[in-house]
Amino acid sequence: MSERDLVKAVQDPGFTPATDEIDDVVALLVAEDERVADGAERALARTGLSGLRRAWERSAAAPSALRARVHRLAARVADKHHDPAIEASLRAALGD
pTM of the full predicted structure? Predict the structure, then answer.
């Protein structure tokens, strides 16, 4: 899917990215257009733990804007999955 198509797709509330689209959707978490960034976060949340893991890996050495979005994504996923590891990671990231 082209970047333009992906930008449009993440704004659809029912869009769930395919496995090979996750990295491109993670990149949209820091889009200048807040609607696109919010849509990317929402879409990644629907991928559950697999999308969160990929986002977490890509944000390790990333700018703070991406890390902040990934932390919000982690909170959304943790809320659904009640994963103690995610919750511990979020607590550790509070100082970030």
Answer: 0.81
Residue 53 burial (CB < 10 Å; 0-12/13-18/19+)? middle
3-state percent breakdown (helix, strand, coil) of the chain, nearest 5: 75, 0, 25
Q: How far apart are CA 20 and CA 80, in angstroms?
A: 23
pLDDT band per the 50, 70, 90 thresholds, residue 95: low
What does the block give as tokens for 13? 């509330």
Q: Do residues 76 and 41 lie in contact, with contact meaning Cβ atoms separated by under 8 Å?
A: yes
Is the Cβ–Cβ distance between 24 and 3 less than 8 Å?
A: yes
